[in-house]
User: Fold ATP-binding protein from Ornithinimicrobium kibberense.
Amino acid sequence: MSTTPARRRHPATSPFRREPAPAVPEFHRDDRVTHDSHGMGRVVGVETDAVRVDFGTCTMRILSPYSKLAKL
Assistant:
């Protein structure tokens, strides 16, 4: 079950503006980050659609849009 509401289709003839797409954070190597489940970590690799984060006990590959990952 999804917790985010479904996005409505925007009619081409609508006089209202379309909602902007949510901004995806940009991460760089050696950025300090925190994850909702894994805690604090450091970015060890950056790919086009994912980042590799070293959490001390394990290294995880987190996929974009990084909903549970935040830069410190």
